[in-house]
Amino acid sequence: MSTFGLLKTVLPLAVVALLAPSAVAWNNGDIGKLPPMGFNTWNRFQCNINEQLIHDTAQQMKDKGFLDAGYKFINLDDCWLEKNRSADGHLVSDAKKFPSGLKNLTQYLKGLGFKAGIYEDQGTLTCANYPGSLDHELTDARDFVDWGFEYAKIDNCWHEPWKGTDQDRFKRWTDALTQVHQETGVWMYYSFVEWQSFDAYVWGKDIANTYRMYDDIQPEWSSIATILNNASFIGDRTNFWARSDLGMHPFNALKIVRLPSPLDMLENGNGQLTLAEQRSHFTAWALAKSPLLIGTDFSKLSAESAEILLNKEIIAINQDNVIGEPLKPFFWGKNPDKTWDPKYPAQYWSGYHVKDGKQHTVIMYINVNEQPVHLNFTLSRSPHLNGDKTYDVYDLWKHEIVGQAKGFYFADNIDTHDVRAYLFSEAAPSAPPSSTPPTSYPPPSSTPPPSYTPPPSYTPPSSYGPPPLSTPPSYGAPPSYGQPPSYGAPPSY
Ligand code: GAL
After folding, report:
1. I want to staple 375 with a disulfide (CB 3.0 to 4.6 A). Which of 142, 207, 229, 411 is the partner?
2. What is the pTM of this model?
3. What's the CA gap between 360 and 125, in Å, rounded?
C-alpha cells in the first residue's frame, strides 16, 4: 500500500481513536440520565416496612407537592422479602408485610403517578440476612421488571464467596438488566453500593447509573460533613462521561452521559439536624448532582423541613438537562485548598447552570464552622466566574436578587452549619456600577482567614484525586466488609 493509501486508511481510525473517550459509559436510556428523586424506606424505617406505610407515604408525597416537585421514585430497601427463595429459586415478598403482593404495590404507586424501586444485594445475603442475588441475577432482574419495578439498589454485603473482581461482580447485574431489556423493552435504573471499600469511582460509569461513594449516612452533621469531604475530591470523576457514537460527525459524537454519584440518601427530617443543617445537606446533595432520595416519615415532616426539600430552584440545578457536571470546590475556606478534612470540608463550591437558555454560575458556600462567620471570596478564584466582570447575585434561598458582585463577594454572619446558594449572572452593560462595599468590610480573602490553624492530623492528599480508601470515617466504623451493619431497634411506625 502506498504511503498515501496507508494514511487514508489509518488516519480516520486514528482520529476516531483520539476522539473516542477512554471508556464507554453504560447507557440504559433516559431513565439513567438525570439524578433520580424520590423516597427510600431505609433511613427512617429500616426493616419496619409494610404495604400501608408505602401507600401512606405515596399519598402524603402527592398531597404535599413532592410528586409534582419531581420526587417520582418510591423505593423499598432491605427486608421486603422472605428468608428463603421459593423451591424454584425465586425471591418471595414477605406476605405479612405486603399481603397484596408487590405487583399490586407497584400498580398502586403507578396509579398515583410514581415509579417503584426495589433492593437486593450482590452477595449471598442482603445486609439484613435475607437471600442475596449472587448467581441469581437474571432470575431476580426478570422478576423485578415483571413485578413493575424500575429502579434497583444493589448492596454489597456477604460477597465473600465471589472470588473475582468487584467490577465483575456488579457487572453481572448490568448484564442481567441488559438481557431483560432485550426481552421486555424495559430498562431499570441501576444503583449499587460501594461503601468506599473499592474503586468504583474508576469503573462504576461503565456498568451502572450510580454507585454510592461512601458509608451509610447518619442523621448527624458529622456524617454530612464527612461525606461532603469525600465528595469534594471526586467531582471530576463521577458525573459526566463521554461515549463515542461512530456513526455521527466526530464533534457530535462526543455525547455526554451522566453518572450521578450518590452521596447516600437524604436524612432531612431525621435525628436532631437543625434547619440550617437540613438546608446545607439538601443544597450540597442537590448541587453535587446526587440522587435525591428522601428517607423520612412524611406524616411527621415539619412544614419547614418540607419547604427545604421542595426548593424548586435548587431542584432545577440538580435536574439540569444541559449541565451535568456537579459543583466542585474552588476554595476550601477554613483549610488550605485540597485539604482532606472530614470535619471541615471545602466551603466554597461553583459550577454552571443553564436556565431559560442562559448559562449562569452557581455558587454554594457552607459554613462548616461551629460559629457564625462571614462569607468572602475573590471571584477570580472560581473557574466559573470572570474576575473582571460584574454579576447580579440571586439568592436561591431568599428567591431574590441580593446585590451585585465585582472582584469579590461578601455576605456577613452565615449561621453555623448553614448554607448560601447563589446564581451569579453577568450584569447587563447598562446596569449601574456595583456598589462599593463599606470600608469596614474585610478585604477579599485570597488566603485562609488569620484565625486558621491547621488541624493537627492534617496530611495532604498525594494528589487531587479520590481520597485514600483506607481513611476511616469520623463517625463510627463502616459496616465491616461482608458483615451486616447492626440495626438497633427499628423506629415504630
Ligand atoms: C446497608 C446500606 C443501607 C441499607 C442497608 C440495608 O449496607 O448501606 O443503605 O440498604 O444495608 O440492610
Report:
1. 411
2. 0.82
3. 47
Phi and psi torsions of 222, nearest 5°: -60, -35
How far are the Cα atoms of 43, 75, 93, 167 from residue 49, in angstroms, in the given order? Answer: 11, 11, 12, 31
> Residue 149: its pLDDT value, please?
98
Find the mean pLDDT for residues 307-331: 95
Rg of the Cα atoms in the chain: 24
Ligand 1 atom with the shortest distance to the CA of 157: 7
Q: Is 121 in the pocket of ligand 1 (CB under 6 A)?
A: no
Q: What contacts 485, CB < 8 A, 6 or more positions away? A: 127, 216, 479
Q: 352 C-alpha to center of ligand 1: Å?
A: 33
Axis crossing angle, helix 166-184 with helix 200-207, rounded to the nearest 10 = 10
Q: Which residues are known catalytic residues?
A: 155, 216
Kindly tell me if the per-residue pLDDT of 480 is higher than 60: no
Lowest mean pLDDT among 174-188, 278-292, 474-488: 474-488
Average pLDDT, stretch 343-355?
A: 97
pLDDT of residue 463: 31
Q: What is d(CA 265, CA 212) in angstroms, rounded to the nearest whole number?
A: 9
Q: How far is the CA of 430 from the centre of ligand 1 (A)?
A: 55
Which residue, judged by its Cα, is nearest atom 9 of ligand 1?
Answer: 216
Query: Which of 46, 49, 78 gets mutated to test ligand 1 (max ligand atoms within 8 A of its CB)?
Result: 78
Pairing of strands 115-121, 400-406: unpaired
More confident residue, 236 or 329: 329
- Work out the widest C-alpha separation in the chain, in whole angstroms: 79
Residue nearest (by alpha carbon) to ligand 1 atom 12 = 127
Is 215 touching ligand 1 by the criterion CB < 6 Å? Answer: no
Pairing outcome for strands 255-258 and 348-355: unpaired
